[in-house]
Amino acid sequence: MKTAILTDSTAYIPQDIREKLHIHMIPLSVVFGNETYREEVDIHADEFYEQVKKHHQLPTTSQPPLGLFVETFEKLSKDYDAVISIHLSSGISGTYQGAVSAANMVEGIKVYPYDSEISCMAQGFYVMEAAKMALEGKSPEEIIARLDEMKKTVRAYFMVDDLSHLQRGGRLSGAQAFIGSLLQVKPLLHFVDKVIVPFEKIRTRKKAIKRIEELFAEDASTGVPMKAVVIHANRLEEAEAWKNELAQTYPHVEFMISYFGPVIGTHLGEGALGLGWYKL
After folding, report:
1. Pairing outcome for strands 3-8 and 23-26
2. Is there a contact between 143 and 84 (Cβ–Cβ < 8 Å)?
3. Chain CA centroid to CA 18, Å
4. Domains of the chain with CATH codes
5. What residues pair up with 259 in beta bridges, in sequence order?
6. Closest of 232, 222, 220 to residue 275, by C-alpha
7. Is the dihedral of CA 145, 151, 154, 160 positive or negative?
8. What pLDDT score does 172 carry?
9. 8 Å CB contact between 223 and 195
10. What NCBIfam families does the record tag this protein with (predicted)?
11. Residue pair 208/188 in contact by the 8 Å Cβ criterion
12. Coil, helix or strand for 248?
């Protein structure tokens, strides 16, 4: 059985890796006024953060149309027997449900929608693992069993730098944003039961990064082989410095750098920084 791997743009897997691993991608969109941009197709992260600075209002975001899922599955059916469709958490987007609905509307290919229950490169970890297994000829059932096993150790924590961004997006009340800014509060967030919830409120950016390092150390200090990713919102230099520092401390961990692209960046804002990981 030949199995395709499909994901959405919020995994932010670089195009060269998608091509190398035969990963198919369906984009979500950001809307500035009357202009709609498909992320990773019409607009990329660096362009997005420049656009945000030029607009008074935050963009809105939208999931892929159901018809695009149907069209994509039908196209894949010409070359594949099955497709595992891995998407950002169903608790923050209807994208996964779109895959489920479209799966019931196509014939000639078996569709396995998979809820990563997370997003960004933490979601990408599942996608890349699935793609490697598919290239090795593993069955959809074997791949999904591996993804379920991964889910036991996948972790991600991220810090929001600009509270006003959360407030403008309706994720935080005006009073909370004002008081938080005065106190230099950097909320530490993570996913619980498919939704983003506060983990801790930390007073400064430096302390927030240190706290994420402490949480990472709980898993990494055991010496078990791991993969990890530093994720940034238009803070590449800071992300690279942090990655290099962590790599020196944990030589048994394979580190990479990724980013919060347009859709997720709309809600987190520029300056957000995170760390995701899982045990191999």
Report:
1. parallel
2. yes
3. 15
4. 3-28+63-151 (3.40.50.10170), 155-279 (3.30.1180.10)
5. 232
6. 232
7. positive
8. 54
9. no
10. DegV
11. yes
12. helix
Q: Give the DSSP letter string of 129-143.
A: HHHHHHHTT--HHHH
Q: Smallest Cα–Cα separation from 160: which of 269, 3, 16, 17?
A: 269
How far is Cα 243 from Cα 234, in angstroms, rounded to an integer?
15
CA distance 21 to 51: 31
- Look up residue 118 and give its two tokens: 């997370």
Rounded Cα–Cα distance for residues 1 and 167 (Å): 48
**Which residue in the block uniquely carries the two structure tokens 């059985």?**
1
Amino acid at 47: E
| Tokens linked to 32 | 């500035």
Chain position carrying tokens 């929001």? 160
Amino acid at 120: C
pTM (2 d.p.) = 0.93
**pLDDT averaged per 10 residues, the chain (length 280):** 96 97 98 96 96 89 97 98 97 95 96 98 98 98 98 96 64 55 74 87 90 97 96 97 97 98 93 96
**What is residue 155's predicted lDDT score, i.e. its pLDDT?**
97
Tokens found for residue 153:
């150790």
- The angle formed by the CA atoms of residues 153, 158 and 164, to the nearest 5 degrees, is 155
Residue type at 168?
A: R
Q: What is the DSSP string of 10-43?
A: GG---HHHHHHTTEEEE--EEEETTEEEEBTTTB
